[in-house]
Specification:
Residues 122-155 have a biased composition (Low complexity). Keywords: Membrane, Transmembrane, Transmembrane helix. 25% of the residues lie in helices and 18% in strands. With 357 residues, it is of the alpha+beta class. It has two domains: 14-98, no CATH class; 160-355, Protein Transport Mog1p, Chain A. Strand 8 (306-315) and strand 9 (318-325) form a beta hairpin.
Length: 357
């Protein structure tokens, strides 16, 4: 191991910065390749400080003796830092072409990552604050509870920019997120779900086909293997890029596929909050009925003062989870609309897993 000279002292965050060597901005570039304002320097410093806080919080979190997957955390957070800096600079360049006085402020959200993170954070949530695994009363499933909201009821307008044809094929337009991590089958493009999005939302990121995902965004995952095994998965995030933090609306969708016969077991673990991935923020479950679903679950969550509504529906061995930040006034109706569309996407996919085989 190389020894540091006696008169050289480590700087704060040096160990964390080592993980970012390949991704940090190239400081040797010409001045014309980087923003030349104090605002940019402060923004990048803010990103690094948030990164350090996120790493420290996650590394001290212990979920029922499950080890922290530090390598995955660094990979996912590193990707986020690069993405946010690049997106900020692209947005500022476009704004500058129209007006020199415009200042584009990106939300300080931590979004989806290219590797599985220790704690999955909904699109616009900033800093996870673990509070331990809360005691949670399992929500009744659709088979046990009469409808409280008519399935498919929606008062939402649709966004033309995010509305592909619902008659399109049920295939997938994206490949593997990691060529070394195969999937048993591809999760479809969820065209009906996109058509049901609230107006103004655009795609922030599509993670691709990847079989290591939380069941619902907002859960914290330990390093233990998934049981039943997860054999397919996909995450997509939509957000309103015009709104500003902390009032920015977003929708996170996660579809996971379990080994044959494992769907009901995985869903029961979600309801009881006993799986490999669990909620650490308090949740308030409520009943929801979704047409075509085998089981349903939904809950309100207040994470660091931000209002979320989350829900999940099982279709055979497939589970779709949706998390909405800043839902409409009728949050139950909004969530029901999105889950109903997602279930229809999975039923129309033709995947044997949707039939539990």
């Amino acid at each position: 191991m190389t020894q540091r000279p006696r008169d050289q002292h480590p700087t704060p965050g040096e160990d964390d910065a080592d993980h970012l060597d390949t991704d940090r901005p190239n400081t040797d570039r010409a001045d014309t390749d980087r923003p030349d304002t104090d605002h940019d320097e402060l923004a990048d410093l803010d990103d690094l400080l948030q990164l350090q806080h996120h790493l420290q919080s996650a590394l001290h979190e212990e979920l029922h003796a499950g080890r922290i997957d530090e390598a995955s955390l660094h990979a996912g957070t590193r990707h986020q830092l690069r993405r946010r800096i690049q997106h900020r600079r692209r947005t500022r360049a476009v704004a500058g072409a129209f007006t020199l006085a415009a200042v584009i402020a990106l939300p300080l959200g931590l979004h989806w990552s290219a590797e599985p993170s220790v704690r999955t954070v909904p699109a616009a949530s900033l800093t996870p604050t673990p509070t331990g695994t809360p005691t949670q009363t399992p929500a009744p499933t659709a088979a046990q509870t009469p409808a409280q909201t008519a399935a498919g009821t929606s008062t939402l307008s649709k966004s033309p920019a995010s509305t592909p044809s619902v008659d399109s094929t049920a295939g997938s337009s994206v490949g593997l997120a990691n060529p070394d991590v195969p999937v048993a089958y591809d999760i479809p493009d969820m065209t009906r779900t996109r058509a049901a999005l609230p107006a103004g939302l655009v795609v922030l990121g599509d993670r691709g086909q990847y079989p290591k995902s939380p069941t619902v965004m907002g859960q914290a995952c330990s390093s233990r293997p998934f049981d039943p095994p997860m054999v397919a998965g996909r995450q997509i995030t939509w957000w309103n890029e015009i709104q500003r933090w902390p009032n920015q609306a977003s929708v996170d969708l996660v579809v996971t596929g379990r080994a044959t016969g494992g769907g009901p077991i995985a869903f029961d673990a979600l309801v009881a909050n006993t799986g490999v991935c669990r909620f650490t923020d308090p949740t308030t479950p409520f009943a929801i009925t979704v047409a075509g679903a085998d089981q349903t679950w939904a809950a309100h969550t207040d994470s660091n003062g931000l209002p979320f509504v989350s829900g999940a529906a099982r279709v055979g061995d497939l589970i779709v989870g949706i998390t909405v930040l800043h839902p409409a006034q009728d949050a139950v109706s909004e969530l029901t609309t999105l889950l109903t569309a997602a279930v229809a996407d999975l039923r129309a996919s033709g995947l044997p897993a949707a039939e539990g085989r």
